[in-house]
């Protein structure tokens, strides 16, 4: 009889979803994109993924032990952080880069804020920005898919520097037959995983929709050859936009709580991404855009709070 | 004599202006990209600290209370201008590297803070020694931070490359790196302080 | 003098060389006052006002007083005196004629005198918009605009940081990094993200 008396505060909701289940499901959803990345770029890509995940998990274990908390590797969040970081790296990087990056992601991006659920910035993206600022040469050398690893520029960077020699078909861009980071090239795989997550309810459509819509419209309006002539499909299928919109901007911890907040957040991400892509120095702005909106998320939350019944204005 | 040496030493560890008092961080972060810059800034700041502490201690009884802060600022600004002009004349490269942060010594919280908290209440010799100690602590802290930043951010120390083939983490030499290094160091010192208790 | 130059100043002052996160001016006030949003907003508006006005006043003094009399080397002293006097004057006026406003941000005004940002922007303007003693075309407008943008950049950093820190209050942060160390690490990641606007060209 005693175990029927639950002494706890309301609400007594008991969903089947636990943190671990969500984390591992997201990792599962990312599998097709990663498989495509390894298919296109070979064992080098696989090595990067493995090193990143391994170092992330070891770092998490070490830091949790150091701060005397319960180690909780099975909740899958370190695994996911390592996976996402690897997906954001060029396939040919020396293996110490994902190693250092994964440690940075867990230590500075996550544990120093108090661990899971308390970080402000997306750990994988924070690590990517750190790596980009620290070793820009390694982080910007890409290669074409296939066995002979020919150094190549990504579609976005080639466009930015004005020498888009190859004509990429939309199919190429969609399937991943292009130079780029390991997990961002195969848009088809990413979308498949995203559909899975949406159907299961692990992510909601608001942020990706707001993000992609804003980016698409902005790209259409501010075309390189005059207004209202932009090749928005090319831009949507290029770079880390799909990866960012469905898997990183939707992270519960670093995005706003309310729907209104999430829509503002998505629009902000889209705006910043396109501004950096079109007029900034870097060819791709997804990473920085999401990080900046991460910083703004607490502020957005503060001003889109639902009024508690009976209280006055915030 | 013992009392004086205690005054001097407190500026270095117990009341280190950077790590304990957390004052005057603006120039510390900006200037700590290389140890040579740090040395230059430390020297300039120490000169201003000693000079202004001394003069303020001498005039403390003559200055009316209501306008003491502006008066202190005038004294400090004078010494900063002297330092600026000397630097421009004898090491223009250093002056260029330190940029706007040399005139900003005027509003450096350490200088004005010591003037207000110490030099305006204590005799001349104590104030001079305090200025020297704080300046030394400031410089030492600057050297510590900038050596970390220079070695990991550019692979050199005092301009000399260290390990060949070492790929430095460029971010450390950039502004975000400064904030990261000082955050981690402050956390580290907090940890040490906690362990001691 | 075209819109591109103004845009460049805007992006530079607000994002790429953000006064707090990149130039580290006003860091002391940033770390001390960014714990809650309301005081942060109050301080930011005071700073914005003082920086804009002092940009104008120091420019005039530099152009018409110091340079003609070959006293450019006295700029540090004269700038800081002008700023201190202006802040004192503003505080007196607000206290007397707008007590409501004084309650909002009057207490922060004396702190602004020693805020590196104010003196820093004045010196920056003198360095950037003057060449060998004579003002570049559009110098006055650029100086005031830079002051405005620096104020905006300061406010942006303060607002973002205060909301973040309010949220971090609810986290179980490791003891050693509570308060200042974590604030610096957060600022570091914010600064890193602002680097995205590097190389901006319209």
Topology at a glance:
The complex is a heterotrimer of chains A (314), B (197) and C (202).
Chain A: H1 19-29, H2 31-41, H3 43-66, H4 77-87, H5 96-107, H6 123-134, H7 136-139, E1 142-143, E2 151-152, H8 155-161, H9 170-175, H10 187-200, H11 206-221, H12 232-237, H13 241-248, H14 259-279, H15 286-303
Antiparallel strand pairs in A: 1-2
Chain B: H1 2-10, H2 25-31, H3 35-59, H4 68-90, H5 92-98, H6 109-119, H7 124-154, E1 156-157, E2 160-161, H8 175-196
Antiparallel strand pairs in B: 1-2
Helix pairs in contact in B: 1-7, 3-4, 3-6, 3-7, 4-5, 4-6, 6-7, 7-8
Chain C: H1 3-16, H2 27-33, H3 37-66, H4 75-97, H5 99-105, H6 109-113, H7 116-128, E1 130-131, E2 134-135, H8 139-168, H9 180-194
Antiparallel strand pairs in C: 1-2
H/E element string of chain C?
A: HHHHHHHEEHH
Describe the strand arrangement of the main beta sheet of chain C, using strand numbers: 1-2
| Quaternary structure type | heterotrimer
At CATH level 3, the topology of chain A is Ammonium transporter fold
In DSSP terms (H or I, runs of 4 or more residues), the helix count of chain A works out at 15
Roughly what percent helix of chain C?
A: over 70%
**Count of DSSP helices of chain C?**
9
What is the molecular shape of chain C? globular
Biggest pleated sheet of chain C: 2 strands, antiparallel
Query: Beta-strand level of the residues of chain C, as a percent range?
Result: under 5%
**Distance N to C terminus of chain A:** 44 Å
N-to-C span of chain C: 14 Å
Number of strands of chain A: 2
| Biggest sheet descriptor of chain A | 2 strands, antiparallel
Main structural class of chain A: mainly alpha
* C-alpha-based Rg of chain A, rounded: 20 Å
If you had to describe this structure to a student in words, what would you say it looks like?
The complex is a heterotrimer of chains A (314), B (197) and C (202). Helix content of chain A is 58%, strand content 1%. By secondary structure, chain A is mainly alpha-helical. Chain A has a single domain, classed as Ammonium transporter fold (Orthogonal Bundle), CATH 1.10.3430. In chain A, strands 1-2 form a two-stranded antiparallel sheet. In chain A, a hairpin with a 7-residue loop joins strand 1 (142-143) and strand 2 (151-152). With 197 residues, chain B is mainly alpha-helical. Chain B has one domain (2-196). Chain B is built from eight helices and two strands, in the order H-H-H-H-H-H-H-E-E-H. Chain B has helices at 2-10, 25-31, 35-59, 68-90, 92-98, 109-119, 124-154, 175-196; strands at 156-157, 160-161. Chain B has a two-stranded antiparallel ribbon with strand order 1-2. In chain B, strand 1 (156-157) and strand 2 (160-161) form a beta hairpin. In chain B, helix 3 (35-59) runs antiparallel to helix 4 (68-90). Chain B is globular and about 60 Å long. Chain C has 202 residues and is mainly α. Chain C has one domain (22-193). Chain C is 71% helix and 2% strand. Chain C has nine helices and two strands; from the N terminus they run H-H-H-H-H-H-H-E-E-H-H. Chain C has a two-stranded antiparallel sheet with strand order 1-2. In chain C, strand 1 (130-131) and strand 2 (134-135) form a beta hairpin. The longest helix of chain C is centred in the N-terminal third of the chain and has 30 residues, at 37-66. Chains in contact: A-B, A-C, B-C. The A-C interface holds A 67, 108-109, 111-115, 118, 120-121, 126, 129-130, 133, 272, 276, 279-282, 285, 287-289, 291-292, 294-296, 298-299, 301-302 and C 37, 159-160, 163-164, 166-168, 171-174, 177, 182, 185-186, 189-190, 192-202.
